[in-house]
Amino acid sequence: MTSPPSFEEMWAELRPIGRSTRSGGYVRRPWTSATREMEHWFRAQATARGLRLEEDGFGNVVAWWDAPSSLAGGVLTGSHLDSVPDGGAYDGPLGVVSALAAIDRLRGRGFAPRRPLGVAVFAEEEGSRFGLACLGSRLATGLTTWAQARALTDRDGVRLGDVLAGGGPSLLSGIDAYVELHVEQGRGLMDLDAPVGVASGIWPHGRWRFDVGGVADHAGTTRMADRRDPMLTYAMTALAANKQARLAEGAGRGARATFGRVEVTPNGTNAVPSRVAAWLDARAESAEALDTLVGAITSQASARAERDGTTVAVTAESVSKAVEFDAALRGRLATGRPVLPTQAGHDAGVLQTAGIPSAMLFVRNPTGVSHSPDEHAEMPDCLAGVDALADVLQELVG
């Protein structure tokens, strides 16, 4: 029997899929040709290893290495295959490829599991299409119901319910633990000179939509004093977000605030816009700090709108509470490795919130850059991550 592809070979197979020839970044949008090709690749890799495939109606897939006579519930690893627009190669796929390679490591050691071991691919982790991050894992755990999610629409007006059937078997019933490997999205491990680290928990975070209304008019004939321009209100709101996050950091409270997506109507060069919709991504080290941050930004936006003669409506589209990963599981991973918090959301955080003991391994990112074509990890560090994952999985399922 031919041996399945190595980590390096699998990584080379994935690199071209969904890659932009212009920027070198990736556009792996959920339920489009690029992600379908990635999922087809995953199924082929699972089949090559004799793993049993199972999927639900939410786009999630698990490849199972079944135990001859299971003594307890299953253990899950894996990650996701979708990306943010023009994202990096490692965010998500590194965890999936490493999970498959870890199974190869275990088999190479002559190891046989005494409980089921699954490699999961969760759908729409980034929220880049339907706006709700970790959508697949939220639906799988029941933290978001199908009734709530099916009406979500993408930027083209396509409903999630028209893309997915919903429902199906529960992929997470009987799961006793989840371990996710992920590229670090920061420079913590670089500063600590460590190839692999462990996550302590995830900051609370969320996405808020700011709808700013004004009056459309001619850019040339309308006097400046007569305008009700929502772009001015939005511009000051974006500056306020930056200022409030910096003030929080200066006071010793960790905070992040970013407006990364804007839609302008009618979006004409020679027209005063009638509406600006903008999405705030805000994160902080505590729920109280996050509420204070978003409240201050909203207050400044409202004050500016009153001056501009515009309106502001703020809608929370998704908010995730702080997550502390399972202490016992985290302790198993942390032997001899640094432990550090993360400000990024992950499927592991969703599963931990749903009551499934979860933990995360991070692989060093020398640039510290993520959600960008410059995201990177060196091959020796990736292989060190595979070994670390294989070791903890052997302990959990052995």
Can you offer a commentary on this structure?
With 398 residues, this protein is of the alpha/beta class. It folds into two domains: 7-203 and 322-397, Aminopeptidase (3-Layer(aba) Sandwich); 205-319, Alpha-Beta Plaits. Helix content is 34%, strand content 24%. It contains twelve helices and 15 strands. The strands form three sheets. Strands 1, 2, 3, 4, 5, 6, 13, 14 and 15 form a nine-stranded mixed sheet that branches. The protein has a four-stranded antiparallel sheet with strand order 9-11-7-12, with helices on one face. Helix 1 (7-14) runs antiparallel to helix 3, helix 3 (93-108) crosses helix 12 (379-397) and helix 8 (230-250) packs antiparallel against helix 9 (287-308). The two termini are 25 Å apart. The relative contact order is 0.17. It comes from Nocardioides eburneus. Pfam families: Peptidase_M20. InterPro entries: Amidase_Cbmase, Bact_exopeptidase_dim_dom, Peptidase_M20.
